[in-house]
């Protein structure tokens, strides 16, 4: 045992309490991406994205909602490809020339579906998300399906999707189609 103060014993593995990071410096910033969809922009942490691909028509899955566009092959996986715009009721979105597909790491822990993909209109744009530049729209209005929040980032409006809810909706749609 080592002593840190007279009368107080600490084991040799004890550590001082961690200091909270400053909330005003650059360490409070995170890297994010803004993704353009039909009818909206999404704002997400950069770490949720596994890869960006060019659009290719997916293999349809019978008996699923229109927003589940089908399955696509990626690195040995059959990924569900969705139109977030259709899921959230924002716009009718179909892939075409210039469309991209963003592969996301699933956060819900379903080992059968560790990734899923969202159809987008172009490449995601890297952004720095700071507390000062991000404002949450707290007007209390109803949010679209699978949207966690409406935000403004440096004067650009965006939606923060609920990725866990999206995964759940995908799993439910695939289970009903099976």
- Strand elements, count: 13
CATH superfamily, by name, is: CheA-289, Domain 4
Binned strand content: 35-45%
Distance between the termini: 61 Å
Q: What summary fits the major beta sheet?
A: 5 strands, mixed
Rg, rounded, reads 21 Å
Which descriptor suits the 3D outline? globular
Strand order of the largest sheet: 5-8-9-7-6
Q: Which architecture name does CATH use?
A: Beta Barrel
Put simply, the count of helices is 2
* Poorly predicted segments: 1-24
**Total domains, how many?**
1
Q: What is the arithmetic mean of pLDDT?
A: 86
What is the H/E order? EEEEEEEHEEEEEEH
Helix content: 10-25%
CATH fold label: OB fold (Dihydrolipoamide Acetyltransferase, E2P)
The CATH C-level name is: Mainly Beta
Structural class: mainly beta
What keywords describe this structure?
178 residues, mainly beta, OB fold (Dihydrolipoamide Acetyltransferase, E2P), five-stranded mixed beta sheet, 13 strands, disordered N terminus
Structure commentary:
The chain is mostly beta strands and 178 residues long. It has a single domain (31-177), classed as CheA-289, Domain 4 (OB fold (Dihydrolipoamide Acetyltransferase, E2P)). Helices cover 11% and strands 41% of the residues. It is built from two helices and 13 strands. The strands form four sheets. The chain has a five-stranded mixed beta sheet with strand order 5-8-9-7-6. Strands 4-3-10 form a three-stranded antiparallel beta sheet, with no helix packed on it. Strands 11-12-13 form a three-stranded antiparallel beta sheet, with no helix packed on it. A hairpin with a 2-residue loop joins strand 3 and strand 4. The chain is globular and about 45 Å long. The relative contact order is 0.20.
């Amino acid at each position: 045992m080592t002593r840190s103060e007279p009368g107080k014993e600490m084991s040799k593995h004890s550590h001082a309490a961690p200091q909270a990071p400053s909330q005003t410096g650059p360490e409070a910033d995170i890297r994010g991406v803004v993704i353009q969809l039909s009818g909206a922009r999404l704002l997400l942490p950069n770490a949720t994205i596994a890869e960006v691909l060019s659009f290719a028509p997916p293999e349809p899955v019978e008996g699923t909602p229109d927003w589940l566009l089908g399955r696509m092959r990626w690195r040995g996986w059959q990924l569900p490809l969705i139109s977030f715009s259709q899921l959230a009721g924002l716009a009718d979105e179909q892939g075409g020339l210039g469309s991209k597909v963003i592969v996301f790491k699933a956060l819900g822990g379903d080992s059968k579906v560790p990734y899923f993909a969202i159809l987008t209109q172009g490449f995601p744009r890297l952004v720095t998300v700071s507390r000062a530049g991000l404002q949450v729209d707290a007007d209390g209005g109803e949010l679209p399906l699978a949207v966690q929040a409406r935000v403004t980032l440096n004067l650009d409006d965006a939606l923060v999707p609920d990725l866990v809810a999206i995964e759940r909706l995908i799993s439910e749609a695939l289970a009903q189609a099976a």
